[in-house]
Amino acid sequence: MFENVSYTYYHDTMGRSVVPDQASFARWEPEAKAYMIKLLPFLIEREPGGIDKATCMVVEEYYLAAASGCPDGGRIASESIDSYSRSFDVSEAKTSGSKKAFWIEAYCLRKELK
């Protein structure tokens, strides 16, 4: 498990390029793996390598959240320089958790609890 969670797999095999380089991917990889480890008892892969693909996409979501500088995908609605002020429009934003859940559900199924 997690054998294919790497920038090379993300970029070359999955064809993704949002995370621009190995260093950026490596920055968020441990956090994404830790996030997925908590969910593993409740997941079944939809396809071979589904856990690894979902984990790579969680890395991407962590990267995007950090790069945006805005909470949960909001956008800066206004900004002032003197007496620094900043406001965000989050009316159409999705939470970081819902974005990660989207990718996890794309590659994995939830196990039935007995």
Strand-helix topology:
Blueprint: H1 7-13, H2 22-39, E1 43-45, H3 50-68, E2 75-80, E3 85-89, H4 96-107, E4 108-110
Antiparallel strand pairs: 1-4, 2-3
Helix pairs in contact: 2-3, 3-4
- What structural class do the secondary elements suggest? alpha+beta
Q: What separation lies between the terminal Cα atoms?
A: 24 Å
Largest sheet: 2 strands, antiparallel
Sheet with most strands: strand arrangement: 1-4
Number of helices: 4
What report would you give on this structure?
By secondary structure, the chain is α+β, with helices and mostly antiparallel strands. The chain has one domain. Helix content is 49%, strand content 15%. The chain has four helices and four strands, in the order ααβαββαβ. It has a two-stranded antiparallel sheet with strand order 1-4. Strand 2 and strand 3 form a beta hairpin. It is globular and about 60 Å long. It starts with 6 loop residues before the first helix and ends with a strand. The mean pLDDT is 85.
